[in-house]
Amino acid sequence: MKIKELSSDDRPREKMLSKGVGALSNAELIAIVIRSGSGGKNALELSQEVLRHSGGSLEGLRSMSCRSLCRIGGIGEGKALSILASLELGRRAFSERNAEGCRNLSTPEAVYSLMLPAMKGLDHEECWVLFLGRGNKLIDKELMSRGGDASTTFDIKRIVRKVLDSGASSVIMVHNHPSGDPMPGKADILCTELLRKALVTFDVTLTDHVIVCDSGYFSFCDNCARFPQP
């Protein structure tokens, strides 16, 4: 059945106009994003098919690649990119709103709250560095590297240059473990020590290294026995 053959209350665009965006289901919102059907399905039916392939979860959908979405009948590259772009906009909006309440990063909980929207559900490791000014106020944050599902690397010289450019007095290193286990490995401890030593040369403090997982985090600072000492 074509979308125009549905009653006005069941057409996603008309429903959004009359009742507001909050009244729409996930499938109806996706239908608006992809605009039209394909492969013998209308936009709403195609959206429902997309959600089935993601396990009914928007988080699962966000973790899908363009290539995997294109394997769904009726979803071409244009529709796949539109879906992924809309989800990324939502993630960034949430991240910005969350960041406003986490400008003071005095605790690992605040760091975790700030970074989880960017790292939740990732199937690869990412290394971020947070640059802080006086009172642990966030000046800037930057993605330093992307890796595989078990490791990533980072450029210490690049971090030091960013510190000098930003005028930061301290930094916090953050990376994720897609495995779901936030406990640090030997490589994590070694990287932390190398970065700490490099920053000391410029009178900059490595305040913490927080390892993020979907269900929790590990803070080197909170676990002083494992945090590299000067």
SSE diagram, text form:
Elements: H1 12-19, H2 26-34, H3 43-53, H4 58-62, H5 66-70, H6 77-100, H7 108-119, E1 126-132, E2 138-146, H8 156-166, E3 170-176, H9 186-200, E4 205-213, E5 216-219
Parallel strand pairs: 3-4
Antiparallel strand pairs: 1-2, 1-3, 4-5
Helix pairs in contact: 2-3, 6-7
How would you describe the overall organization of this protein?
The protein has helices spanning 12-19, 26-34, 43-53, 58-62, 66-70, 77-100, 108-119, 156-166, 186-200, and strands spanning 126-132, 138-146, 170-176, 205-213, 216-219. It has 230 residues and is α+β, with helices and mostly antiparallel strands. The chain folds into 2 domains: 3-95, DNA polymerase, domain 1; 101-219, Cytidine Deaminase, domain 2. Strands 2-1-3-4-5 form a 5-stranded mixed β-sheet, with helices on both faces. Strand 1 and strand 2 form a beta hairpin. The longest helix is centred in the middle third of the chain and has 24 residues, at 77-100. It is elongated.
Q: Which properties best describe this structure?
A:
230 residues; alpha+beta; DNA polymerase, domain 1; Cytidine Deaminase, domain 2; 2 domains; 5-stranded mixed beta sheet; 9 helices; 5 strands; 43% helix
